[in-house]
Write a structure and sequence with these properties.
With 318 residues, the protein is of the alpha+beta class. It contains 13 helices and nine strands. The radius of gyration is 24 Å and the shape is globular.
Length: 318
């Protein structure tokens, strides 16, 4: 037991840490929140850990995850990545000046505002909104942001031509999870799987493979329609170098992580493109610690060859 200052005894006492779960009603729903408390061994009084977030903040965070709302950090990251102040972002969206500030400081946005933010975060929508409402920003700043956005989203002709070739895909079969390849969903899944932390390229390929194969195991179709080959260190998406390069160089939605050969999402994905079962499969992939090299699908496929989705039934459970 540690000795710290007890605010009730007003002196240093021995205290013991305990945890308790309480329910906080958020928008009509009881959200369970587990908090750590400290109990004074002299007077028996219970008090919070110094600096711990309050119960309401924890309940809002849990509700936000459950409802799929953008987090304050995601809103702030998007705004600062585009050099916008809170008031400027609010004016672009037609909101009051303090609205963005409240959301970034933990207030829950309503569904309509969350949808508006997600739409704005889609590639190409921010410059379109600035061009429609240029009065929301100072003239010099408006020009600077638009120039930067147009430069970032203008792909090189060679890369774009190669990328467009990906859209001309063979008929769906067992190597694509019986789904035609979706560039949008592949990009969305990539951003989802590395939005919380930087992930190495081999691990990111492995997470994408596990998400698609997990979904196929449960629903007999993949999420993205991607084909995965047996690479030297695990499954890799067909032409993954090209796909990741597009997100890095043309849209800036991916950035290099702090460690060599790691990638991190620079913008939150648009979760509205995924069904609830697809999101569950993506979450299951992130939770799994099983090395893909240990799976039968990888072991029984020749190097460089496509991995059949029929192996999904043998996936190791998380």
């Amino acid at each position: 037991m540690a000795q710290i200052f007890c605010p009730h005894c007003e002196t240093t006492r021995q205290v013991q840490s305990t945890t308790a779960t309480e329910h906080v009603v958020v928008r009509g729903e009881a959200i369970p929140v587990t908090r750590e408390h400290r109990a004074c061994q002299a007077c028996g009084a219970s008090f919070d850990q110094p600096g711990a977030p309050d119960t309401a903040a924890l309940a809002h965070e849990a509700y936000r995850r459950k409802a799929g709302l953008l987090s304050p950090d995601e809103i702030r990251a998007f705004r600062t990545a585009h050099d916008l102040t809170q008031h400027e972002l609010g004016r672009l969206l037609g909101w009051g000046g303090a609205t963005v500030s409240r959301y970034e400081n933990g207030a829950l946005q309503d569904d309509a505002h969350d949808r508006a933010l997600r739409l704005l975060m889609r590639a190409g929508n921010l410059p379109a909104l600035i061009e429609r409402y240029p009065e929301a920003l100072a003239a010099d700043k408006c020009r600077a942001i638009l120039a930067r956005l147009h430069e970032a989203t203008a792909p090189g002709p060679g890369l774009l031509a190669d990328l467009e070739a990906l859209l001309i895909t063979p008929e769906p079969d067992e190597t694509s999870g019986f789904r035609r390849f979706s560039l949008t969903k592949f990009f969305g899944a990539t951003l989802f799987l590395c939005r919380d932390e930087a992930v190495s390229r081999p691990d990111l390929n492995g997470l994408l493979w596990r998400a698609d194969f997990t979904h196929y195991r449960e629903h007999k179709t993949s999420i993205t329609g991607a084909r995965y080959l047996r690479g030297p260190w695990g499954p890799v998406a067909d032409r993954h170098h090209l796909l990741f390069a597009y997100l890095l160089e043309c849209t800036s939605q991916l950035v290099e992580g702090p460690a060599p050969e790691t990638l991190r999402a620079a913008a939150p994905p648009d979760l509205a493109m995924f069904t609830d079962p697809e999101l569950q499969s993506l979450l299951a992939a992130k939770a799994s610690a099983a090395p893909p090299q240990d799976d039968r699908a990888y072991r029984e496929t020749a190097p460089g060859q496509p991995i059949s989705y029929r192996y999904a039934q043998y996936l190791q459970q998380p």
